[in-house]
Amino acid sequence: MLTQSPPRASSLTLTESGLLLLPGDAPLQTIVDADNAPALLQQVLRRSYSWQERNDVSIRRAALSPDRGPLWAAALMAWNASILFDSGETASYARYMHRDVRPQGRSTDILIPPEADALRWGVADVARTKLDAPIVSAVAVVEFDGDRVKAARVALTGVWKHTADLAQAPTQLAGQPLTPEAIDAVARAIAQEADPRPNFLGSIEYRRAMAEVLSRDALMQCLA
Q1: 39 phi and psi, to 5 degrees?
Q2: Is the pLDDT of residue 135 over 80?
Q3: Pairing of strands 20-22, 13-14
């Protein structure tokens, strides 16, 4: 009796610089199927796009169209993704989407750090139902050096005038242990920093309150 072998998992290319290459023209499902893709990105893709969309939409198109997948854009920012251009230049994804930098050439691929023991992450969001897009969301990634924070990033959606962005307050965590008290202080600062645009889904006050709650929840997951 003939039996079929299970499909072999694919892998993302590890570049000489130690970063993983997300090929811009490949479908989003490439990341979900890769055995070395960060679990954060895989989870967010499943949350943000249907199976059909993940097979139809390219990685570059999704990255450069954050309004369709705000949580995906936030995850790329928090994971410290960069954009690679055909000129050979690279640019921080967060800074590029914020229009702080404009390298020469056409964007081709995305570069991301690989998963590592020193990296911990968390995701929190609020939506009307489980099937709806988040009204507000927070993605936290903390890099540790021993028992102290080396770098911390929290990207949020639904609390800025644009789709997604990194909060500045988490930089305060660098050099100190990650504690509930430190997280509380940063979450409160993020709420003050937030500059939301109200709509029928939430007022300015509601969105700022959710920025604090969700940032705290996402960072607390990094303690586990």
Answers
A1: -60, -35
A2: yes
A3: antiparallel
Section 48-60 average pLDDT? 97
- Cα 95–143–74 angle (5° rounding)? 40
- More confident call, 102 vs 108: 108
Give the gyration radius of the chain's Cα atoms.
18
pTM of the model: 0.92
Read off the tokens for 160.
Answer: 């800025």
pLDDT score for 9: 63
Q: CB neighbours of 188 closer than 8 A, spacing ≥ 6?
A: 212
Domains and CATH numbers, the chain: 13-112 (no CATH), 119-221 (3.30.390.50)
Q: Write out pLDDT tens, residues 200-216.
A: 888 999 999 999 999 99
Q: Distances in Å between the alpha carbon of 219 and those of 27, 111, 120, 126, 171?
A: 30, 24, 9, 16, 13
Closest CA relative to residue 54, chosen from 73, 71, 32: 32
Alpha-carbon distance of 50 to 92, in angstroms, equals: 27
Q: What are phi and psi of 202, to 5 degrees?
A: 180, 140
> String of b and e for 18-30 (b: at least 16 CB within 10 Å)?
ebbbbbbebbbbb
CA–CA distance, 165 with 195 (Å, rounded to integer): 11
Cα–Cα distance between 25 and 51 in angstroms, integer?
17
Which token pair is 142? 């903390």
Tokens at 87, concatenated: 């000129």
